[in-house]
């Protein structure tokens, strides 16, 4: 997961006129929440409106996935947001908890939650699901779609495994092999939401998504570099690439993008991601570049923000520290819309 900065709320000012009345005038104001949610009660497990919780969490911490969610069918959108919110909950464990013992407890909570959700007895499992908004919505998803437990468990296992690993892998291939299970789970795991597993196109689409998984992993590596430098004074450039371009960690920590060889290293990493996108598109020649069936297109929209980032990075001469890359790109939403309308990757 990457840290993204968000635009703050728009502040509106208004002027009031002094009017002498027998009783003070009551100023009209908008409600701070909708009527339907104002009566929502909360428990220790969180709000009893799981969709609102998941949507808010994804909007704040994974806004690109939140934009893509608008092109999912209404019912499937709630499950997609639950899936993404589940990933965010796991990401927060690895980024906010410094003690391994506490992190292990949190990870075990989600393992137990999945075990309950996928219990062989639907009646007992429904009542035993933890009253956490994400768990509740995941339980509803499992009851209505053939979502594999494997991919959800893989998210937990990969997050737990990488928690104790150094930020830099020995090579780019090692990094991809270590972290791509996260992207794999987010893409392949959600495919059954819109396409039955036994559909004739499932195999080919899954192969395409595996290439996009590598694309997302590479983009995540590049986007995380400025975050690691700023927050932990660490770099995540694979060791083999650092040696190839004679990168010096202290030089990167002090000078950022001006460090000798860093832009060349980012160019090589970014090229690997773009190559995977090109390969994925090459497999769609028979359908003139379109995703068929059209119902599977929402899953492939995750590639749009990744490609958009790589192209912006290219336009900035592969300066991963450039301030423009930390800002929200207002062009992203129409790009996602256009990709969805065209049905092409």
Write the layout of secondary structure elements.
Elements: H1 35-38, E1 42-43, E2 46-47, H2 50-61, H3 63-69, H4 74-96, H5 100-117, H6 122-128, H7 133-144, H8 149-162, H9 172-188, H10 202-232, H11 239-244, H12 249-255, H13 262-282, H14 297-300, H15 303-315, H16 332-342
Antiparallel strand pairs: 1-2
Write up this protein:
The protein has 345 residues and is mainly α. The chain has two domains: 47-164, no CATH class; 166-345, Farnesyl Diphosphate Synthase (Orthogonal Bundle), CATH 1.10.600.10. Helices cover 60% and strands 1% of the residues. It contains 16 helices and two strands. It has helices spanning 35-38, 50-61, 63-69, 74-96, 100-117, 122-128, 133-144, 149-162, 172-188, 202-232, 239-244, 249-255, 262-282, 297-300, 303-315, 332-342; strands at residues 42-43, 46-47. Strands 1-2 form a two-stranded antiparallel sheet. A hairpin with a 2-residue loop joins strand 1 and strand 2. The radius of gyration is 22 Å and the shape is globular. Mean pLDDT is 88; it is low at 1-26 and 28-47. InterPro entries: Isoprenoid_synthase_dom_sf, Squ/phyt_synthse. This is NADH dehydrogenase (Ubiquinone) complex I, assembly factor 6.
Number of domains: 2
C-alpha end-to-end distance: 22 Å
Beta content comes to: under 5%
Enter the CATH topology name of the largest domain. Answer: Farnesyl Diphosphate Synthase
Poorly predicted tracts of residues: 1-26, 28-47
Biggest sheet, in brief? 2 strands, antiparallel
Pfam families: SQS_PSY (PF00494)
Protein name: NADH dehydrogenase (Ubiquinone) complex I, assembly factor 6
InterPro entries: Isoprenoid_synthase_dom_sf, Squ/phyt_synthse
């Amino acid at each position: 997961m990457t840290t993204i900065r968000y635009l703050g709320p728009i502040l509106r000012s208004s002027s009031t006129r002094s009017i002498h009345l027998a009783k003070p005038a009551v100023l009209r104001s908008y409600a701070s929440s909708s009527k339907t949610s104002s009566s929502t009660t909360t428990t220790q497990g969180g709000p009893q409106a799981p969709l609102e919780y998941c949507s808010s969490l994804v909007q704040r911490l994974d806004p690109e996935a939140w934009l893509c969610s608008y092109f999912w069918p209404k019912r499937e959108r709630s499950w997609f947001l639950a899936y993404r919110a589940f990933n965010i909950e796991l990401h927060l464990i690895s980024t906010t908890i410094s003690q391994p013992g506490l992190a292990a407890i949190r990870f075990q909570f989600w393992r137990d939650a999945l075990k309950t959700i996928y219990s062989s007895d639907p009646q007992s499992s429904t009542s035993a699901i933890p009253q956490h908004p994400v768990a509740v919505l995941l339980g509803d998803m499992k009851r209505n779609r053939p979502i594999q437990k494997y991919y959800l468990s893989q998210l937990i296992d990969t997050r737990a495994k990488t928690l104790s690993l150094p930020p830099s892998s020995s090579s780019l291939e090692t990094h991809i092999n270590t972290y791509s299970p996260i992207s794999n789970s987010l893409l392949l795991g959600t495919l059954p939401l819109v396409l039955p597993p036994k559909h004739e196109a499932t195999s080919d689409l899954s192969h395409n998504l595996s290439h996009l998984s590598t694309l997302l992993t590479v983009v995540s590596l590049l986007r995380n570099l400025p975050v690691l430098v700023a927050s932990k004074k660490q770099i995540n450039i694979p060791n083999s690439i650092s040696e190839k371009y004679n990168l010096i960690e202290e030089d990167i920590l002090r000078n950022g993008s001006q460090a000798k060889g860093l832009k060349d290293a980012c160019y090589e990493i970014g090229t690997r991601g773009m190559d995977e996108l090109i390969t994925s598109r090459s497999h769609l020649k028979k359908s003139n570049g379109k995703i068929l069936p059209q119902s599977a297109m929402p899953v492939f929209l995750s590639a749009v923000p990744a490609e958009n980032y790589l192209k912006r990075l290219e336009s900035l001469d592969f300066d991963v520290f450039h301030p423009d890359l930390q800002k929200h790109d207002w062009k992203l939403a129409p790009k996602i819309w256009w990709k969805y309308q065209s049905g092409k990757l």
